[in-house]
Amino acid sequence: MTTNSTTRSITQAPFGAADQKFAALKDRLIDTDSLGLEHSAVERLIETDGREVLRELFQSHLRVRSMEEVQVVPVGEDGKARGHCRMGTSRPLMSIFGPVTVTRRGYSARGHDSRFPLDGALNLPPEKQSLEVQRRVARLVAQSSFDDATAQLAETTGASVAKRQVEEIAVRAAQDFDAFYAETVHDISPEKTSALVVVTTDGKGVVMHKQDLRPATRLKAEQQGKPKKRLGSGEKKQRKRMATVAAVYTLGLFFRTADDVVHGLRPVQDVAERMRGPKPELKRVWASLSKEPEEVIEEAFQEGLGRDLNRNKRWVALVDGDKHQLARIRRVAAQHGIDITIVLDLIHVIEYLWKASHAFNKPGTAAAQRWVDERLHRLLCGEASSVAGGIRRAATMRKLSKTRRKQADKCADYLLNNAEYVRYDTYLAEGLPIATGVIEGACRHLVRDRMDLTGARWRLPRAEAVLRLRALRSSGDFEPYWQFHEEQEAKRNHASRYERGQLPAVTHPPPRSHLRLVKA
């Protein structure tokens, strides 16, 4: 009984300031001025003053932790015991409620750096901002610009964080991305997933500062000299670095005909009912500016292997026809002994058809639409070579100008160069996917919507961090990742600084009960 009473007296006294502020808030809510406010003003009042109550509660808790800290003799990772104890050493911490102070014992030895065991028990970061503030920052910068993230943080929390600090926090917050996916074992049951493993990659340019361009691009930019106000024909600004975007998922078989596909591509208002295909399972999307494309493709295959542990699923790669991309996919597949079916994305093919159609028909006309529909149907029936030959013959017979014929020839060349990957009649009969909707959405969401802002130029570390944080949100892994990140922070910042990686206990063990269990 004495122990419990002592504990209550110790832990309740430091909360006096919080009690006073809570009482003051209650008094303010019933005074004459507040009773005349509209409800929105009362909400803002409670949020602002209530946040100060919460800050004081947090400060009081930290005060209790400081009061209950017991003296130890910590031994560092260097094997040196820190026997000299300094009481009352303080450090600031910016919490989501506002600034607080952590007071703790510091231990030192002559010629060696100090240790603060309570910092480890609380898992305090080296930076001033708390890990919860950093989590909020990570979520915000994954959604909007650094300026907007800074403003939203100030509006929704009591934390004061400058834009430069927000940028630095984003980089630190994303540092465990690769380790998370390498070490985290996902609960994947191959028997409960569908028959196909789908791997798809693409590239998307991001405008960078010159020093962060890849060497070849930077050299071209320097040779090009000062940009003109208006670039000449064929000139490029040489200011982008390509981000490699990847997506991996499992998918069910979906058997269709050419008519089904053409019908499904028509505008929603023109279709009474369309076939619904299976949804991607265990989808993961990500992008990288810092890694070479082959590294990202290797990661994609590793992800796929995690979904096909028994090697009994069929693998499909959806591509856009880039010859370097094709070579990398074939090379990595061969290294892993995977027999993979490569499919040319139908959406890219349709884009080429439309450009060719405009060489023969006026844009926006029914004739242009019919031209595309007819050739698309033939492609889906496996007639790629005859479609390409027909386009060229028609261009010759119509005596198209050099400019107009260029698009027609490009379409024909695209089909012939990728003839091996446009066997759509076979793919449809075997239930395989033929369009890269997932990777197109990933390129748009991960890269274009966030990185392609007007006037934006990126430094590589910040751009890579934002891509990683957006990928975690898109794949539904942000919260598991953050738990993993905090565990890694505890190891990096605290456990690694003590002998055998063990943090010293800084609190009294709970009192043992004197009651005994008596068997009946």
Approximate strand percentage: 5-15%
Distance N terminus to C terminus? Answer: 27 Å
Q: Which structural class should the secondary elements be placed in?
A: alpha/beta
List low-confidence stretches.
Answer: 6-11, 231-236
State the major sheet: 5 strands, mixed
For the structure shown, list the relevant keywords.
520 residues, alpha/beta, five-stranded mixed beta sheet, 21 helices, 8 strands, elongated
Question: What would you say this structure looks like, in words?
Answer:
- The chain is α/β, with parallel strands linked by helices and 520 residues long.
- Among the domains are: 189-224 and 236-344 and 454-476, Nucleotidyltransferase, domain 5 (2-Layer Sandwich), CATH 3.30.420; 346-434, no CATH class.
- Helices cover 50% and strands 14% of the residues.
- The chain is built from 21 helices and 8 strands.
- The protein has helices at residues 2-12, 16-29, 32-35, 39-67, 117-122, 131-141, 146-156, 163-173, 177-183, 215-224, 258-264, 293-306, 323-335, 346-360, 366-380, 384-397, 402-417, 424-429, 437-451, 460-474, 478-493; strands at 84-95, 98-109, 112-115, 196-207, 240-251, 281-288, 314-319, 340-344.
- Strands 6-5-4-7-8 form a 5-stranded mixed β-sheet, with helices on both faces. It has a 3-stranded antiparallel β-sheet with strand order 1-2-3.
- Strand 2 (98-109) and strand 3 form a beta hairpin.
- Helix 6 packs across helix 7, helix 6 (131-141) crosses helix 8 (163-173) and helix 8 (163-173) packs across helix 20.
- The longest helix has 29 residues, at 39-67.
- The chain is elongated, with a radius of gyration of 31 Å.
